[in-house]
Amino acid sequence: MPTSDAQMNMKQGVKREPFEKRLNYMKTEFAKWVPGLTELSLYLNPTRGRFNSGIPNSGAKIDHTTVIDSHARRRIRDLASGMISGSTSPSRPWFKLGLPDKDLEQYKPVREYLDECARRMHATLADSNAYESLHVAYEEIATFGTSSMFILEDYRDTIRFRNFTAGEYFLSIGPDGRVNGIGRQFWAQVGALVSEFGIDNVSPSIKSAYETNSTQGWIKVNHLIEVNDTRIPGFLDFRNMPYRSVYWEEGSSTDTFLRRSGFEEFPCVAPRWSTTSATDIYGYAPGWDVLGDDKMLQTMQIQKLMALDKAINPPMQADSSVQGSVNTLPGGVTRFSALLPNAGLKPAYQIAPDINAMREDILEVKKALDDSFFNDLFRMMIEMERSNVTATEIAEKQSEKLNMLSPVIAKLNNEQNNPMIDRVFNIMNRNGQLPELSEELEELIGGMPMKVTYVSIFAQAQKMIGITAIEQNLGFGLNIAGKTGDASVLDNYDLDETIRIYADSIGVPAKTMNDVIIVTQKRKERAEAAAKQAQADAMTQMIEGAAKGAKAAKDLGTTPVGANSALDATMAGITGAQP
């Protein structure tokens, strides 16, 4: 866990101003995105997004006069569930570990070690709140284009995820376009601050409030995590970790901190759905694409309801003969005195709206929303959890949409899943929760970087395009061999390599496959056994032949001549004489 020493910070005269400037710059950059993000929150996902700095738990209200159709909200929820099922499913392995050296990776002890590491990591993720947090992250990224969550060490569950919604954080990126810094401004109660940071590290006003049992007041806190550009490589204290983390109270004394600490990996995972350029700090997503469609949907629904309302309960007009108030309730009585035909109460105007046409137009807009959120594909993924739908079926039925989603999946792997897996692996490794390397494996792979391969349903469906080609090509060759009787056409195939590529593509566990050395040894043993058996069979035939020859010679020597025997017939055939 990160460590801190606020008292030492003050003694060393660490300046807080540079941190405040960087945080303010990040806030300024984020402010440019707030108008668009606010609209996305209002129309598409009203429970997501916090764009004011008000004290928490002050109550929130959803504007149901503006948004009366929650179709987009439901599609976002389906997308999040589909991404969980398709990319990071808790019910099946979705990644495996490998090495840059593919030949070494195929060595069975290495493969088994990597598989055991992956198995333990899957178990740790399942025991934590990882998948709950990932669902929230997918909702955030589908709506706003960016999500953010911390992966922190936890004494009970090893790891703990913490989500943030748009407006609660500000990001920075490095020269490579990757997120490398996060700033936050949040509210915390007096009691929580003392519990988290210690009574000696809070400001005198907070300390006084705590000591007088005034622990419910809210305090604004700043937090910044960024690359530690002053670290000295090789030193292991918190000041020299690759990433530094600083907390301070808003408005507290200059150059005081609640905590200064460090992380060995960037603890924040902040993927973007897509970016326009490498300089974009925040991302774009389907939510940005459909905002206009959703506004139109809300307008159309309101107009349809107004048309129905006017047709069912039209505005009325009453002339001067009406006595008293007008009663428009069912069975109500309105009195009037005039005897003229048109006197009394009647509709001011009547309309006959084409409700069916309105519904068709609304369905067309909803279809546009469905397509933008890949609804067909993600509904299939959700159903997959309850049926026998396979990656092959997904590849066949949804190949076009899967291809459209492929760049997004690749970006999420790079910006979300890769850093998440690295972080979890390193935390578990530091805690001694991964299997120990044997002396042989330590020499072979000790210190070698791990490489992640994804075997999720989406990953398998993408690979099915290549796998289907393998199946079709091999089936074609077998068909030709069967029809022509010429098995030599199968010499075109390296069947061993074909099987290994196929197994790797669908994520077959290493324990179920023998490595090349064992396969070669088994074939050698089988060939030697076959050769010994052939030699034994030949020897048996020779012995049986010799025995038959000896018996025949014996029979010939004891056969009488001149008794019309078989020997007489044989001699007659040779000499031409009558037996």
How does this structure look, described?
- This protein has helices at residues 6-11, 17-31, 34-43, 71-87, 102-105, 108-127, 130-144, 190-197, 204-211, 286-312, 355-372, 375-384, 391-397, 399-430, 439-445, 457-484, 495-505, 516-557, 566-575, and strands spanning 95-98, 148-154, 158-164, 169-173, 179-189, 218-227, 243-249, 259-263, 268-269, 316-318, 322-323, 335-336, 345-347, 451-454.
- It is α+β, with helices and mostly antiparallel strands.
- It has three domains: 6-32 and 148-270, no CATH class; 68-128 and 291-312 and 352-513, no CATH class; 533-575, no CATH class.
- The strands form five sheets. The chain has a five-stranded antiparallel beta sheet. A three-stranded antiparallel beta sheet has the order 3-2-9, covered by helices on one side.
- Helix 4 crosses helix 7 (130-144) and helix 8 (190-197) crosses helix 9.
- The longest helix has 42 residues, at 516-557.
- The protein is flat, with a radius of gyration of 39 Å.
- The N and C termini lie far apart (112 Å).
- The model is unreliable at 1-11 (pLDDT under 50).
